[in-house]
Write a structure and sequence with these properties.
heterodimer, A: about 450 residues, 4-stranded parallel beta sheet, about 45% helix, B: alpha/beta, 6-stranded mixed beta sheet, 6 strands, about 35% helix, EutC (chain B), EutC_N (chain B), cobalamin (chain B), ethanolamine ammonia-lyase activity (chain B)
Chain lengths: ~450, ~270
């Protein structure tokens, strides 16, 4: 249906809900690239005013991507929990913002509400929120998941140790793992982005991770971030797969461009669970997402990139994942142009994921062709830690030498623990103390060149 | 006394180009490391904007025994290229005309719908002209005898500027190639501002998705060696011709002794 809004002398017409949401979205280069953003600053605010008056119930009847042709829409609509939705069913999008910020919406109410929310509702309300609103509400959301460590407990922030190497060299990867563990990182996962897609090489990396984790009884999980079909093949071949990884997006067509559909994700989950490798839980899917991936695959249906990102979370939550993170600045300046846009998108993604009930972490990152730098990452890291982000990346020196982008470092997580006070996953925190890596206060302890990790994994005293 | 707490595992740093054993001041990065990082970032930023020296690259490629053509994408400038990837995937009008002229100059055009050649090769600037400048011609030198051994026919090598990976689809289609290999500068990293990637697409035509390509990435001095990349590409091509596809359905099982770099990095956006 058509939406209209007047603002003083001006009046604006929006063709449908997708158009209204696109025009209400804070400025970003990807929506401009798609030709769907607001034409002026005034139009953007008019769209937000109009969106604020749309009843939440409208989202149940007006799909932004057609139900008939898109299995993600069908997943979202068919999985909607009307009973959980009831407490907010009478609200408009604007009223929903007020409710979320109010004392009427404590952590328990938000957790109960999650199955009743559609990604499009969450995206819509985020467009009416300032950065502080996104931080405040996300901080109230509680989502905990478990495999060998517990991710997402209040007051904690985990770190994915990301020991990538340009040629998957085992000694090089091990060196980064040791460095990261000795900096207190790795409670979310030790996750390698492989340079290779060769199944033998991938199997070798999985065995490397399995060996490190079991030799030192580290309460964490390993992951080689390869295509879900490769993980399934590796499981069939007997490789020690903890987490099953996949990049996902918010439309069926974008997922097809990743070479996946919902059926293969179900297969991946079943294959992973068949191994029974989790000790305290069986959340084992690891998803990565990012605004702009659908447009990049020419599969956006005229819907803005932030709404489609929220729909990717709608996909993720059907698979009870251990970890979900947006790789917020990875995609490049054609989607998020500069530090300001990356920071805004990071806060939106975290808010939307958490409100939908996901253990949302963030790869706080940028590429060298974007107008951003490490100062912007410091800002976003600090904001997300305050917002209660489930986990962030730990990349040696913030420089990923395989993927060629900059993320957050082992040092960055130390910094943010100092200033915000967030702790590690409890099982991992205890392990670090037991290994003498940290003291009772969680800070790094004194260094020894003869630490068992150094002697055991690198074969020599450094 | 220095406030820097050193990490007593500095010897591990020789095992990886990753920034490990940096030491710390409290929770933070020591001054020297912070400045080294800033310098590397400044250089990578600069690398994005240096234009490809087309004549120099084309000359080097011809010296390896290939013919060359040069085209530009529809992106009119570097800034436009960075925010409009759609333009970088399309040929400029001049580029389209140049390829059409080549196709119509063929002595015996094949029947409609039949391929004119086995392989089209595109050498593209992508996001790092430095990578293309340094590694494209040497990689083609490694490929030439392997291509000859397989008996594959090739079109002239197309040197493309302001180009994204998918420009290869338009080029391969215009040239009537059974497959296209795009050698392209990858987004520059701090430690590797000159990394080359090769994207292979069977039956190229406009509109192919990234899931329909195979990629060999991280080709540079400290990364994947040229000879390994060439061997891998030929293995993938041979499989692609037999199985009539590329992409996620074509897994690399070449099992070479060297561990190589095959598929697109996770969630990567091709340049």
């Amino acid at each position: 249906m058509v939406y209209r809004q007047s603002a003083g002398q001006s009046s604006f017409v929006f063709a449908d809900l997708a158009d209204l949401m696109a025009k209400a979205t804070p400025l970003r280069s990807g929506d401009r690239l798609a030709g769907i953003g607001a034409g002026s600053a005034e139009e953007r605010v008019a769209a937000a005013m109009c969106l604020a008056d749309v009843p939440l119930k409208r989202f149940l009847s007006e799909a932004v991507v057609p139900y008939e042709t898109d299995e993600v829409t069908r997943l979202i609509v068919d999985g909607h929990d009307a009973a959980a939705f009831a407490p907010v069913a009478h609200l408009t999008v604007g009223g929903f913002r007020d409710w979320l910020l109010s004392d009427a919406a404590p952590s328990e109410a938000l957790a109960a509400l999650a199955p009743g929310l559609m990604p499009e509702m969450v995206a819509a309300v985020s467009k009416l929120m300032r950065n502080q609103d996104l931080v405040l509400v996300a901080r109230k959301c509680r989502v905990a998941t478990r495999f060998r460590s517990t991710i997402g407990l209040p007051g904690t922030m985990a770190v994915r140790l990301q020991p990538n190497h340009p040629t998957d060299d085992a000694a090089g990867i091990t060196a980064s793992i040791v460095d990261g563990l000795l900096y207190g990182c790795g409670d979310a996962v030790i996750g390698i982005n492989p340079a290779s897609d060769n199944l033998t090489a991938l199997g070798d990396l999985l065995r490397l991770l399995d060996d490190v984790i079991h030799r030192f009884a580290i309460p964490t999980q390993g992951c080689v971030l390869t295509h879900v079909t490769s993980s399934i093949a590796l499981i069939e071949a007997g490789a020690p797969v903890d987490l099953v990884f996949q990049s996902i997006a918010g439309t069926q067509a974008a997922n097809r461009s990743f070479g996946i559909d919902l059926a293969v994700l179900r297969e991946g989950l079943a294959a992973g669970r068949s191994l029974g490798r989790g000790t305290i839980g069986d959340n084992l899917m690891y998803f990565e997402t990012g605004q702009g991936s659908a447009l990049s695959a020419d599969a956006h249906h005229g819907v803005d990139q932030q709404t489609l990102e929220a729909r990717a979370y709608g996909v993720a939550r059907a698979f009870e994942p251990l970890l979900v993170n947006s790789v917020v600045g990875f995609i490049g300046p054609e989607y998020l142009y500069d530090g300001k846009q990356i920071i805004r998108a990071g806060l939106e993604d975290h808010f939307c994921g958490k409100l939908l009930g996901l253990p949302l972490g963030m790869d706080i990152c940028y590429t060298n062709h974007a107008e951003a730098d490490q100062d912007d990452m410091d800002t976003l890291l600090t904001l997300l830690a305050v917002a209660g982000v489930a986990f962030v990346m730990g990349v040696p020196g913030a420089d990923d030498v395989m993927l060629n982008y900059q993320s957050t470092s082992f040092h960055d997580q130390l910094y943010v623990r100092e200033v915000v006070g967030c702790r590690r996953a409890p099982e991992f925190e205890a392990w670090l103390r037991q290994m003498g890596i940290t003291g009772e206060d969680g800070r790094l302890a004194g260094r020894s060149g003869r630490h068992p990790l150094l002697l055991g994994l690198t074969g020599e005293a450094a | 006394m220095s406030a820097v707490v050193p990490d007593p595992w500095a010897r591990l740093a020789a095992l990886t180009p990753a920034r490990i054993a940096l030491g710390r001041v409290g929770a933070s990065l020591p001054t020297g490391e912070a400045l080294r990082f800033a310098l590397a970032h400044a250089r990578a930023r600069d690398a994005v904007h240096v234009p490809l020296d087309v004549e120099q690259v084309a000359t080097a490629i011809r010296a390896e025994g290939f013919q060359t053509l040069s085209v530009a994408s529809a992106a009119p400038s570097r800034p436009a290229y960075l925010v409009r990837p759609d333009l970088g995937r399309r040929l400029s009008d001049d580029g389209r005309a140049a390829l059409r002229a080549w196709a119509s100059s063929r002595p015996e055009p094949p029947p409609a719908g039949e391929p004119r050649c086995d392989l089209a090769i595109v050498v593209a600037d992508g996001l790092s002209s430095a990578a293309t400048q340094a590694h494209a011609a040497p990689l083609l030198a490694c490929l030439r005898p392997l291509i000859a051994r397989e008996g594959w026919t090739t079109a002239p090598v197309v040197v493309a500027t302001q180009a994204r990976v998918a420009l290869g689809d338009a080029i391969g289609e215009a040239m009537g190639a059974r497959a296209v290999a795009v050698l392209i500068g990858e987004r520059p990293g701090l430690s590797a501002p000159d990394s080359l990637g090769v994207y292979l697409t069977f039956a190229p035509r406009v509109g192919r998705s990234d899931g329909e390509r195979n990629c060999i990435s991280n080709i540079h001095g400290a990364g994947l060696p040229l000879t390994t990349a060439a061997t891998r590409l030929v293995w993938l091509l041979r499989e692609a011709f037999v199985r009539r596809l590329t992409g996620v359905a074509l897994k690399d099982e070449s099992d070479l002794a060297l561990v190589g770099a095959e598929n697109a990095p996770t969630l990567s956006r091709p340049p």
